[in-house]
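Notes continue from the previous slide.

Worked example: a multi-chain complex. Inputs as given:
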Amino acid sequence: MESRHLLQPSDFSIAEINDMLRLAKRIIQNPIAYSEVCKGKVLASLFYEPSTRTKFSFDTAMLRLGGQVIGFSDPTTSSTAKGETVADSALTISKYADIIVVRHPKEGTARLMSKHAECPVINAGDGGHMHPTQTLTDLLTIVSYKPEIKDLTVGVCGDLKFGRTIHSLVTCLARFENIRFVFISPDELKMPVYVKDELNKMGVEYTETSSLDESIGSLDILYMSRVQRERFISEEDYLRLKDYFILTKEKMKHAKEDMIVMHPLPRVNEIATEVDSDPRAVYFHQVKYGMYVRMALIMTLLGIKDPLCE
Amino acid sequence: MINVSKLKKGIVIDHITAGKGYKIFRQLNLDELDAVVVLMRNVDSAKKGKKDLIKIETDLQINFDVLALIDPGVTVTYVLDGEKVKKVKLTPPNEVIDILSCKNPRCITNQEHIEHVHFRLVNAEKKLYACEFCDAQTSL
């Protein structure tokens, strides 16, 4: 049977994503029941570039399912250093492992591996291209605080131009029912046309603004991202805009009582630390949801049945 | 006007947008043919003002995908015994393989040799194709 992979969020239908989110929620409620479902299974964790959070998240996800982890986080210690191709590495490693997780600086690497590996491949980030498990993490965070992913106004704030994780979250959320977007960014960092074209095609409502103050009151979710210094040609522009999008306690006063604030992390200064203690600030909880949704994903791709649903 | 004798047997690629004839000539590797090939540039055209035109004096297997990628408005006419026997109109293919290469320097296809990379049509008007690996858009 051909393996199923996760290379981009659209590899799964909304029904399948919802199933996975429900499984993740059951795992959160009763982790012990799932602690041995992957016993005897091996996950190969191939990190061709540094990543602390995502690697730990996948590794602990597999360990908490009772499976084991092999891999590397420094490609100089792998066969790549000897000149082995990614395609050959994928085939070879899939002879040892039951599932592969790969992060690589080159775009499309996970897809290349999926064509050669004899087991499921999960894309844990391929350059600036896709990071689908971040999207799943975001979705699980949303359903943990909102009744369902439906009828929501989602504000996305900061660097909307270059943040591919934001693009995949927006295009994935747009597939759910009655989701509206407010894109909050300086003119220089507006949402790219290709994302807006896709929303237009899907008939999804969105507005664009450069004012967080004016829009925060209408939001159910505020997804913050970092304004990156290196994206600006002029230092003057950067300095003018960097503080413009800092979320403060003062700005939170204008937000709804049940709005949640999310952030893919790491943050720099776009959310003042004074906001961390606000119960609506859920960005540090997101990290834990990331692990649970990866547990659900590993089970799904390995075709492991939910022991609580048998 | 230069007089090029009427073709007895072969292929005429006509209505080429002026300036694109040489690109088609190169992409079809016509310089490697051991047959008479004539490339005419900036020929007067009632429809287009100016056009390029290629006459090939042999029955060659033309790669229509390449032609459609460069200039989908061209017409290809097959000639036998001085008579037009078949005329082909082109449309951009939905998918191309082994013609384009990804121009994204961060794409894995530019690090490893990967055979038969697929490119899918994303914008017929601009003839833009997306790489199956990185989704970056490119054209010929």
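Summary box: Residues 9-129+290-309 of chain A form a domain with the Rossmann fold fold (CATH 3.40.50.1370). Chain A has two domains: 9-129+290-309, 133-287.
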